[in-house]
């Protein structure tokens, strides 16, 4: 097992380097950082000098080598735009994104799994049909429209929840968290729902499909014939058997959640990594874009690793494969 | 001409200070779409930074509510005798926010810092030959040539404390890694920094030792950047912020219809215009014309100008909030040419006739480049303009993109016609003549934004005179001539002056300045 | 004979499901409208000379100031909403369907093979998937857009925006298919019927596509239906983030993005009519997808 984990960690380094390489190869297409860094009155030769200083005239390979080399030494460079250390900038934004993504995912699981089970057990009921239709409508409206609608409904018309930002945050061991104040939770609610709608629908439909499949399988029918209580059949046997594909998707979803949090963060002015990334695209802040992507790649690799380990824990049959 | 400014009565100043402190003190929250990227006043020459830092730092001179220049850290100034340049008499008894005294050494230091290669604002000092400290409170700026506009051009040149910068290793603006001045301030201005979380929140508090008379009643001011316009509007309407700049045009009615909110409308100094690829020998994006560039024919350029229906653009896209522009600066800017204040009328028939006369009775196709995130409604404007051009036979292939990619395309000459907005940094007509109408010449730093390479020998010849002439009437005559030439040759098609739309709660009194700068010292929360 | 009964059964089920009937009608009408947009639309929204700013911001015909010439009103450019929506739906469907098709073929193929062969091949596919996932859709779009811009002559670039966008969306979606197919294949590989097929010496391609694929279609169909929606929506989102289609040749997503500006200004139709149309289209596609899944997978009935 230790060998398996070690192997995956080595692979993940290659994944991150590949992401950095791809990212770097596209930066030149994003735009010109120099015109975004200087004022209109700046002389052309001053612009050129800056370009030279930043090494933007160097060949792509040299720039990439410098970036990865520095990064491997723990030097994440400095933002073109703010001149701050990119490592610090990203680190200070990670808690916001992770908390938002986790809460969105939790909402989608807490709501998605029970409704998935319910709609599988009563596939023809009116409630089931209404739930299915509502969630479908939910995922058919673009996220940014939903976000703005929620803001105007709950923030402006009803005045219940804040319209932007993180609300009250507290420092917990260097981690800026909004999970410990009422204010923080109020600010978190709308963005987490906006971000979670799509994941919720996917989870629910997936659980439903798997559950319906399992309920038709022989062992459940056999169990029924044996007189095993229905509740135990549904939840101990049927539901646990749906978990492998569900966990795959959840693992994937976390990636999707982080990627889609770009839109949600921008709509709610949520100060996470996604918002920072969008800003850095706008200003062609290459060091920030590069580090963001590598950090995201790291998260993906980590989550995938955990998902794979969970497989093994849940489904013992897969263990044989790995050991062979 | 006297440039002496009366020294304010210290007595009145302190009396007002007391009364303001007695009035109900308020915290104030505001938002804008861009975060100032640094707290260093010399690092970047960009409006969000200069606007924000004008609350913390001060220059030798400053602009009042009506944009006129008045004394700030300099109480008065006068032309040097016997040589070109200006002498500034500094205000005495001013202290920086950390308590150290302000004097001529700080001006000298700030000049050296701001004119260094590491500073993006150094172009302001291109006309300066030398700076001399005469005594503790007198500084001379010697210029290469007579420069009547020099004091106006350094209103955003902010003064740093020499001792503070040196003690903290911030002698120069940050070039690679950040330095102390990127995140910390020590100005002489009415406010100082309480906390800063870049891109998230910046808090200012009043400077208790400020030399000026306090007109505001703000005890704490919190700034939040909100990039998404709809979110910003929601933040205002829900009461979480007191003021926002700007709001989208189409939402003005919505804000006005609600109790407790108001909209502040004005005109920016920015003129929006179309430019041509004057020096291109052929069209780059045409499907039917090769080997020649019809826009080199003045009749074709004039036809394009007559095809634009500003009244409809105003009514539908801008909800009646713009005025057509006849030249590259709006009325009210110094040097504005009253003599040439009519713009080409909307006249599609005439446009067609001119095209036929130029040899294109059936029109032709060409590429029109526009940004989609730079000016108010820029993309919608270009779509409307493309439709208007098409109506007279000018078939524009419109291509729009974000500004991060737009300037590089213009610099690479990838356009037949393009959209540009220009705000005269010095609030004088000389500015667009220098940047947009002069033959491009990187050595002389002329025409650096004249992407199409418009060139007229007479215009080039008149510019130095306009820069040096001290007599207003003689100067205006030269400016009038330039405007007349460029109108006749349709160097650009000036469209309109960009509107300026802010929104605030009813109980907030504030001043909207035409440069879109927001000054906390004019805010009163009732 | 079996096929006939299956089809017959499907039709019978269809006639008993009002939701499926309504969905089918909506979907068929939208698709027909989209396909025949050039024939039935009152105006051509791509023809700049055919509309005028003078007609801008007219409300739908049933509201005050409505103009019978513009049944659902006009946008800020004076474009007829009916025509814009028909042409927009056409573009959205083209993008959505082709992106989904590419993603399915790519994802299911790689996922099946990864699950079947395991080992090194699986490792490589999954790491490529990681790389893909780590690049958000917006960056994939920027990358492809950038390459297209570097490789293609500039006059072709505007025309190829649709292809570029489709490819970018497809690349952002294939991983879902691949990982799900892989996970399900792993499970199927343990089953006797697969082992039996392998032992009897059937070719891997045959085992994968004839034996395994039908048995893992359930979760894949769920992803397909949901992902067709997300493909169409992703296009809208990319446009919201500033890298979608140009505003003068809009898809439904771009229409919604433009309409967002008018959410509060009183011109509700510019946002909500395209949104309503998109929702109706996506929901009915999903309902039909669900229905088809039930038909093809009788065990779920």
Going by helix content, strand content and strand pairing, the class of chain C is mainly alpha
Overall pLDDT of chain C: 82
Low-confidence segments of chain B, given as residue ranges, are: 1-23
- What shape does the CA trace of chain B take? globular
Largest sheet of chain C: none
> What's the tally of helices of chain C?
12
Please estimate the helix content of chain B.
Answer: 25-40%
- Which stretches of chain C are low in confidence, meaning pLDDT under 50 for 5 or more residues running? none
Alpha carbon gyration radius of chain C: 22 Å
N-to-C terminal Cα separation of chain B, in Å? 41 Å
Derived from helix and strand composition plus strand pairing, the structural class of chain B reads alpha+beta
Strand content of chain B: 15-25%
Q: Note the quaternary state here.
A: heterotrimer
Please give the structural blueprint.
The complex is a heterotrimer of chains A (324), B (526) and C (301).
Chain A: H1 2-30, H2 33-37, H3 44-53, H4 60-72, H5 86-121, H6 126-140, H7 143-157, E1 170-172, E2 175-177, H8 182-215, H9 218-226, H10 230-241, H11 243-268, H12 273-282, H13 286-314, H14 317-323
Helix pairs in contact in A: 1-4, 1-13, 5-6, 5-8, 5-11, 5-13, 6-8, 7-8, 7-11, 8-10, 8-11, 11-12, 11-13, 12-13
Chain B: H1 10-22, E1 26-32, H2 47-53, E2 61-63, E3 69-71, E4 74-79, E5 85-90, H3 104-114, E6 128-135, E7 138-143, H4 150-153, H5 162-167, H6 180-183, E8 191-197, E9 201-206, E10 218-225, H7 229-237, E11 243-245, H8 252-257, E12 261-276, H9 298-307, H10 310-317, H11 348-357, E13 364-371, H12 378-391, E14 394-401, H13 403-411, E15 417-422, H14 430-437, H15 457-468, H16 472-488, E16 492-505, E17 508-509, E18 524-525
Parallel strand pairs in B: 1-10, 1-11, 13-14, 13-15
Antiparallel strand pairs in B: 2-3, 4-5, 5-7, 6-7, 8-9, 9-10, 11-16, 12-15, 12-16, 17-18
Helix pairs in contact in B: 9-11, 14-15, 15-16
Chain C: H1 2-15, H2 18-35, H3 37-40, H4 81-117, H5 119-134, H6 137-151, H7 154-159, H8 161-189, H9 192-199, H10 204-240, H11 252-260, H12 268-296
Helix pairs in contact in C: 1-12, 2-4, 2-12, 4-5, 4-8, 4-10, 4-11, 5-8, 6-8, 8-10, 9-10, 10-11, 10-12, 11-12
Explain how this protein is built.
The complex is a heterotrimer of chains A (about 325), B (about 525) and C (about 300). Helix content of chain A is about 75%, strand content about 0%. In chain A, strands 1-2 form a two-stranded antiparallel ribbon. The C terminus of chain A is likely disordered. Chain B is about 30% helix and about 25% strand. Chain C has about 300 residues and is mainly α. Helix content of chain C is about 75%, strand content about 0%. Chain C has 12 helices and no strands. Chain C is globular, with a radius of gyration of 22 Å. The two termini of chain C are about 20 Å apart. The model of chain C has no long low-confidence stretch (mean pLDDT about 80). Classes of the chains: A mainly alpha (about 325), B alpha+beta (about 525), C mainly alpha (about 300). Chains A and C meet through α1, α6, α7, α8 and α11 of A and α5, α6, α8, α10 and α11 of C.
